[in-house]
Write a structure and sequence with these properties.
Elements lengths: L7 H13 L1 H9 L10 E6 L4 E6 L2 E2 L1 H13 L3 E6 L8 E4 H17 L7 E5 L4 H13 L2 E4 L6 H11 L3 E5 L2 E3 L2 E3 L1 H9 L7 E5 L13 E3 H5 L11 E2 L3 E7 L7 E6 H15 L7 E4 L6 H13 L3 E5 L10 H9 L3 E4 L1 H8 L4 H4 L8 E5 L5 H11 L6 E4 L33 E4 L5 E2 L4 E7 L9 E2 L3 H9 L6 E9 L5 E6 L3 E4 L2 E4 H9 L4 E11 L3 E10 L6 H15 L8 E5 L12 H9 L15 H13 L1
Parallel strand pairs: 4-17, 6-7, 6-8, 7-14, 8-11, 11-12, 16-17, 16-18, 18-19, 19-20, 30-31
Antiparallel strand pairs: 1-2, 3-13, 4-5, 9-10, 14-15, 15-24, 21-22, 21-23, 23-25, 25-26, 27-28, 29-30
Helix pairs in contact: 1-2, 3-4, 4-5, 6-7, 9-10, 12-14, 16-17
Bound molecules: 5'-O-[(S)-butoxy(hydroxy)phosphoryl]adenosine.
Length: 634
């Protein structure tokens, strides 16, 4: 299926039309899908409650659009190409016909085990084809999937299962990532000691690692498949039926379950996939994200498959067996569109341009970037050494809550500028506001990035706590969705995302709340209080700097730091580990007791010379001590 927009002139016209007639614009796009019943109302919304409903009254099954709809025209075309962690293991190619069969079989396994429409299913799997199949099998029967990234700890997994009351867990014996094997069934078992709602656990054999199976609860994936056939009639759901929950961190407290619904998400991921990447029939598309994140949901599974594309799924890491792996995979399959993160680019850049230069990568046509701001240097490296200056780079800005890309160039159509996400997609209405919430008009300005009108792919609520959703996203500036990002609109009207202005840290494209990490650090028996900030890191974009106050001065600081790291590993996962931990005797606080993170951020950045006004601090002396300690840490 082709892109709708093929020239910049058309983009401008479509954009104009989408803002003036949003309902007609999206209805025109939605009509191309298979609906079992057409909607009564295109859009019903207010950002006050908030309440957002798209295609209300419409009924459908998204997997009919992902699979059944394509069988006649492209049944034999590869839907998923899977490249294993180990290049010597054989790969797997699933055509649309084969994928359809596998999804139906697994849907029948879920039904057979008592999962029905509206039930939540937790998916904790490595990047294997069964992961994509699992998402679609849930959607096929109207169950709500909640994928938990394989790098999260047992505690984090249990918290997510409990928050949404999942009935079933899908996992594997263990997973391969580079040279490491991770015992995910063992981690799941630990989580399962505190998850009363889980009735059944389906276990995929991936590594052959020995695992313990609990009688009556744990089932082998392959055994269950033997019990079912491949006939499965997709269940009908309402357009606003939840499709999935995905947990993400905010500036306060524990991660929240972002809820996406069916109809709008379908329309939006398909539309943005086809237009941003300008996908051409038959092309090989590769997004290197993990399906445990929104990028994988929207742009490995749903978007590409809705569009009838061939999507490549990679189980491994960019540096295994060596730092040429990505380029080798691109050559092996003739990848045309490559979508990755700035962190991956920077980490490969560190191995030198000779590595990508060993590969011609002639098939590449479009490059994409996602997850964090891309610095100019990495942008140029990507452009020169990967794209060989003949591939447009689409720097796509969006968030878990958004469902799909909001601000991005359209490949080869919109002009590009390093570090800029450029222009909003049709239907997307960004505004910049000052700290008082006043909309900043005109160009050459900077402010807090908000959206003033809904788009079909946006989230609807946070699971089980609508008030929190309102508070977090819709209360800061009345009648606007606040993204948490700072943003610049340059003289020409192009957008540049400046990074988070709230207490969210983006480490290698992974989002963490400062409070979430502080809570994990505070679990250490000797820690009374901690404060966490982000600071610039050459490869990760941002890294975590933790300041901790101990109850007793630690006898062995190295050991204390190791134990704090253990605590973070246990409660969140190794991905949230602080890069630096500094023991302090106090924190810079205002008289009302609020930690002045601005000061801590400056110290972490090494900018100790200009800390701004510290006169309102309760104890200005503590700043000198922290500064001295920070210097010693370097
Ligand atoms: C935050 C959202 C949705 C993609 C995966 C991350 C940052 C994302 C960009 C970009 C600058 C970006 C923002 C945003 N971000 N893409 N192209 N340029 N910043 O999703 O975990 O929900 O994080 O990632 O700060 O708010 P996420």
């Amino acid at each position: 299926m082709q892109p709708d927009i093929t020239s910049f002139d058309e983009y401008q016209k479509q954009y104009q039309y989408s803002v003036e007639n949003p309902e007609a614009f999206w209805a025109g796009i939605a009509e191309k899908f298979t609906w079992r019943k057409k909607w009564d109302e295109v859009l019903n919304w207010n950002f006050r409650e908030p309440k957002v409903e798209w295609f209300k009254g419409g009924q459908l099954n998204i997997t009919e659009n992902v699979l059944d709809r394509h069988l006649e025209e492209r049944g034999d075309q590869p839907a998923i190409i899977w490249e294993p962690n180990d290049p010597d293991e054989s790969n797997i190619v699933l055509s649309y016909i084969e994928l359809h069969i596998k999804v139906c079989q697994l849907a029948n396994v879920l039904l057979r085990n008592g999962v029905t429409k509206g039930d939540r299913v937790c998916i904790y799997l490595p990047m294997v084809p069964e992961l994509a199949i699992a998402l679609l099998a849930c959607a096929r029967i109207g169950a709500i999937h909640s994928v938990v990234f394989g790098g999260f700890s047992a505690q984090a997994l249990a918290d997510r299962i409990n928050d949404s009351g999942c009935k079933m867990l899908l996992t594997a014996d263990a997973s391969y990532r580079g040279a490491k094997t991770s015992p995910i069934k063992e981690i799941a078992d630990e989580a399962l000691t505190q998850t009363p709602t889980i009735e059944k656990v389906l276990v995929l054999r991936r590594t052959g690692t020995e695992v313990s199976m609990t009688e009556g609860r744990d089932l082998w994936w392959h055994d269950e498949l033997n019990e079912v056939d491949s006939d499965n009639e997709a269940v009908t759901v309402d357009a606003e039926h939840p499709l999935f929950i995905l947990y993400t961190s905010g500036s306060t407290g524990k991660p929240k379950g972002v809820v996406h619904t069916t109809g709008g998400y379908m329309v939006y991921t398909d539309y943005t996939f086809r237009n941003v990447f300008q996908y051409q029939q038959g092309e090989i598309y590769w997004c290197t994200a993990d399906i445990g994140w929104i990028t994988g949901h929207s742009y490995i599974v749903y978007g590409p498959l809705l569009a009838g594309a061939t999507t490549l799924m990679f189980e491994g890491v960019p540096t295994y067996p060596d730092a040429g792996r990505y380029w080798e995979v691109i050559e092996k399959y003739g990848v045309n569109i490559f979508y990755t993160s700035p962190t991956a680019i920077r980490s490969l850049e560190a191995f030198g341009p000779e590595i990508p230069e060993k590969f011609e990568m002639k098939s590449l046509r479009v490059l994409g970037s996602v997850g964090e701001p891309i610095n100019e240097e990495a942008w140029h490296w990507y452009d020169e050494h990967v794209g060989r200056k003949r591939c447009p780079i689409v720097d796509t800005w969006w968030q878990t809550e958004n469902g799909g890309i909001l601000i991005s160039p359209l490949a080869g159509i919109t002009p590009t500028k390093p570090g800029y996400a450029m222009l909003p997609l049709p239907g997307v209405q960004p505004v910049l506001v000052d700290n008082e919430g006043k909309i900043i008009e005109g160009n050459g300005v900077e402010g807090n990035l908000c959206l003033k009108f809904p788009w079909p792919g946006m989230f609807r609520t946070t699971w089980g706590d609508h008030e929190r959703c309102r508070q977090n996203y819709f209360a800061t500036y009345p009648n606007l969705y606040f993204t948490g990002d700072g943003c610049k609109r340059d003289k020409e009207g192009y957008y540049r995302i400046m990074g988070r202005v709230d207490d969210v840290i983006n480490v290698s494209g992974h989002r963490f709340g400062t409070a979430e990490i502080e809570n994990a650090i505070d679990e250490h028996p000797n820690v009374i209080e901690s404060a966490v900030v982000g600071y610039p890191h050459d490869i990760k974009g941002q890294a975590i700097y933790a300041y901790v106050i101990c109850e007793h001065h630690p006898e062995n600081e190295t050991q204390l730091i190791a134990e704090i790291n253990q605590s973070v590993n246990k409660i969140i996962g190794p991905i949230a580990r602080p890069e630096k931990i500094q023991v302090v005797t106090g924190l810079p606080k205002t008289r009302s007791g609020k930690i002045m993170r601005r000061i801590l951020r400056k110290i972490a950045e090494g900018e100790t010379g200009n800390l701004g006004d510290t006169s309102t601090l309760l104890d200005p002396e503590v700043v000198e001590e922290i500064k001295a300690g920070a210097l010693k840490l370097k």
